[in-house]
Amino acid sequence: MSISFEDRVAIVTGAGAGLGRSHAKFLANLGAKVVVNDLGGNVAGEGGSSKAADEVVKEIADAGGVAVANYDSVTSEEGGQSIVKTALDNFGKVDILVNNAGTIRDKSFTKLDLKDFTALMDVHLMGSVFCTKAAWPLMMESQYGRVVMTTSSAGLFGSHGHTNYSSAKLSLVGLMNALKQEGTKKNVLVNAVAPMALTRMTEEFMSPKLAPKMKPEYVSAMIALFCAEECKLAGEIVECGMGYYSKVEIVEAEGAFLGNGDVPTPDEIGANWKAISDMTGARPYKNANAIIKGVFDKMKARGLVPEK
Ligand code: NAI
Fold first, then answer.
1. Between the CA of residue 167 and those of 124, 152, 157, 172, 224, what are the distances in Å?
2. Centroid of ligand 1 to alpha carbon of 220 (angstroms)
3. Is the shortest distance between the CB of 80 and ligand 1 below 6 Å?
4. Which residues contact 185 (CB under 8 A, 6 or more apart)?
5. How confident is the model at residue 261 (pLDDT cuts 50, 70, 90)?
6. Catalytic: which of 71, 144, 165, 218?
7. Where in the chain are all domains bearing CATH 1.10.287?
8. How does the average pLDDT of the chain come out, rounded?
9. Among 156, 231, 241, 289, which one is least packed by beta carbons within 10 Å?
10. For 176-212, what is each residue's pLDDT tens digit?
């Protein structure tokens, strides 16, 4: 397999800095025509300037690639539509959408102002919703699309002082899981990355000495695979950075039936915690219905429900 994006049109949101800049350049270097979206604000999403996106467009052009800038915020329906329109007006279609734009506003939950919670839901969740919603009908119509969500280990596993960020980031997994049910049959494939990279967003927590090891390109290579025509993966989450690539999965334990056909007491549930939480044989499910069917199958196997 030798991945090329010749004749492919990609949108990368938040591509004026950090990971997005790297993704845009990586895809352009492999032949994609790229919409470089960025509103050019600070790490909290305040302020704005066309400079960030313009500079990346110039870097791509200087390297012989093709790119156009878009300065809209992803946080409105009109913004999402305008970003997709930029792709259509300049390149005639949209094949790839990398939902990358993001901000942070860290505070303990006790001190957090709720407007900083909403702001993060707006950029991470709704920003991805608005852009995907604008691109989705085009992708479904053309029966081709590759969409990548940017989640985070902060959402997947939790992180102190990040209630807003963690909530927003994990919500993208829900969005991906549901979109997968609708898009896969039309070759519109949605996956997610959980990056680890040194950018202005993470420089506060990381030593600059780590910069070469934590360069965003390690993540961009994973993005490029998910965006490739050859890649048929859907609904995958990959933790990636520093040359490390690892699948993350939500699984359910085998579980235990308690109460002997009656409602168990809370004490009985507590007493059986070991069996409830035994992860031996834990497995993922392809959708929510499969879980319910799985429970019924287990009940049948134990003679707890009639066969028909
Ligand atoms: P960054 O701050 O360097 O880049 C984010 C870019 O998004 C900036 O250029 C910013 O102007 C742009 N942006 C912010 N709000 C926007 C909006 N409303 N509309 C359009 N553009 C907007 O941060 P970094 O590290 O490159 O983050 C990129 C994505 O990766 C974010 O979604 C972040 O949450 C996620 N992430 C990053 C990790 C890391 O290790 N750097 C870890 C986990 C997730």
1. 10, 10, 11, 9, 26
2. 13
3. no
4. none
5. confident
6. 165
7. 251-308
8. 96
9. 289
10. 999 999 999 999 999 999 999 999 999 888 888 888 8
CA of 42 to the centre of ligand 1 (A): 10
Ligand 1 contact via 65 beta carbon (within 6 Å)? no
Averaged over 274-290, what is the pLDDT?
Answer: 96
Length of the chain in terms of residues written = 308
End-to-end, the C-alpha distance of the chain in Å comes to 49
**CA 199 to ligand 1 centroid distance, Å:** 9
Helix (H) or strand (E) holding 96: strand 96-99
Residue 40 DSSP SS3:
coil
Residues of the chain with CATH 3.40.50.720: 9-248
Judge if the beta carbon of residue 195 lies within 6 A of ligand 1.
yes
Distance 202 CA to ligand 1 centre (A): 10
* Residue range 251-308, CATH number: 1.10.287
| Superfamily of domain 9-248 in the CATH hierarchy | NAD(P)-binding Rossmann-like Domain (3.40.50.720)
- Residue with the smallest CA separation from ligand 1 atom 18 is 73
The tens digit of pLDDT for each residue in 81-140 reads 999 999 999 999 999 999 999 999 999 999 999 999 999 999 999 999 999 999 999 999
Q: Is the CB of 37 under 6 A from ligand 1?
A: yes
| 165 in catalytic set | yes
Residue 77: its pLDDT value, please?
98
